[in-house]
Write a structure and sequence with these properties.
12% strand; 404 residues; 41% helix; alpha/beta
């Protein structure tokens, strides 16, 4: 029975950590189910239902026998065309349908991009704070993540000098995300152009996640690095999806746009991993993308109002410092000044401990900065109802007023 001493779980999979954002969300939901009035700032999803006309299209699709069968692994041809048209409309980037792969949500696009580009030991420059899924996808591909850490003093924007300092002869790609999850940072056009030119100059790939492209506020504008630096075309992979723009997180439709050889290789991978994305979801996405952007305009207005409220309220709490985010639907306040101080008989030394205390004592769920590679911060999503938002931040303020 010598084989019994072998680990049950492979080292590769055992090394994956649970999604911290989903873990916080499930703990909050469990407390809620037990009757506690928990307010959750954890999950990154709009609190709006998917627009009716999109749902109707899905109902129709479910009745269509064509969609009861396998369809091409890489996606419905008409959805690929809609993505080509939408990308040209929204970011000025011109692609061909052979450069598009439809994936099971944005997460599969992230995974497949790194699986396709990286060999073991290849380095990827990642700007921290970063979304929790990126490190796991890079690690699974055998890649090595090199962090460029930003903080509240620059509004979480990385400088060209920082990127250059992180580059080695093993660097294969830069992961570029603007608007950013978790910080809401948005890079200006000149900065995006400069970063794109730097990548071209050093022969680097750029993997750019544009899922929050339509959620920008105030004077901020979204700039696609693929458009800003056209000479990057042969070395850029764009990741996107319908989840955030159309409140379709549960439908699981994302996509990847890239050079033909990369997309073909990623499609081969997907043909063995999942085959086609569910046809009903693809049909819903087709309707979303061929319609106008009025659904997102309504949401953006609500998010903008909540954004201003939450930034103001957080900055009124002594020891909390919250830069104004210009995109997505998150704030990323620093709570470093509150660590190590006494609160209800405890002295939380880390933001993970402080977040736990906030959940237990104030019944408010926030995600600690540890999840995003920078301890000392909280991420709060403001994609929740106005009343809950005010009540939730008020509870935090009330709890923190007891800090000694």
């Amino acid at each position: 029975m010598g084989g019994m001493t072998r680990p049950r779980i492979s080292a590769r999979i055992a090394a994956i950590s649970e999604s911290a954002t989903l873990a916080v969300d499930s703990k909050a939901k469990a407390m809620k189910a037990a009757g506690r009035p928990v307010i959750g700032f954890g999950a990154g999803e709009p609190d709006f239902p998917t627009p009716d006309y999109i749902v109707e299209a899905a109902v129709e699709a479910a009745r269509n026998p064509r969609f009861h069968k396998y369809t091409p692994a890489g996606g419905l041809p008409e959805l690929k065309q809609a993505i080509v048209d939408k990308t040209l409309r929204d970011s000025g980037y011109r692609a061909d349908t052979s450069q598009v792969l439809i994936t099971n949500g944005g997460k599969q696009a992230v995974y497949e991009a790194f699986a396709t580009l990286l060999d073991p030991g290849d380095e990827v420059i990642v700007i921290a704070p970063y979304w929790t899924t990126y490190p796991e996808a890079i690690k699974l591909a055998g890649g090595v993540q090199v962090d460029v850490v930003t903080d509240e003093t620059t509004g979480y924007l990385a400088s060209l000098d920082q990127l250059e300092a992180a580059r080695t002869e093993r660097t294969k790609a830069l992961l570029f995300v603007s608007p950013s999850n978790p910080t809401g940072a948005v890079y200006g056009r000149a900065e995006v152009e400069a970063i794109g030119r730097w990548a071209v100059e050093h022969g680097l790939w750029v993997v750019t996640d544009e899922i929050y492209e339509h959620l920008v506020y105030g004077g901020a504008e979204f700039t696609s690095i693929a458009t800003a630096t056209p000479e990057l075309a042969d070395h850029v992979v764009i990741l996107n999806g319908v989840a955030k723009t159309y409140a379709m997180t549960g439908w699981r439709v994302g996509w990847m746009i890239g050079p033909k050889d990369v997309v073909k290789a990623a499609t081969n991978l997907q043909s063995h991993a999942t085959s086609n994305v569910a046809n009903v979801s693809q049909a819903a996405a087709l309707t979303a993308l061929t319609g106008d952007l009025s659904a997102v305009a309504t949401m953006r207005e609500a998010f903008d109002r909540r954004r201003q409220t939450i930034v103001r309220m957080l900055n009124e709490i002594p020891g909390v410092l919250c830069p104004e985010p210009l995109g997505a639907f998150y704030v990323y306040p620093s709570v470093k000044q509150l660590l190590g101080k006494e609160l209800r008989g405890r002295r939380p030394a880390t933001t993970a401990e402080l977040a736990e205390l906030v959940l237990e004592e104030a019944e408010v769920a926030v995600v600690p900065g540890e999840a995003f590679g920078t301890p000392g911060y909280f991420r709060l999503s403001y994609a929740l109802g106005d009343d809950d938002l005010v009540e939730g931040v008020s509870r935090i303020a009330k709890l923190f007023s007891e800090i000694r």
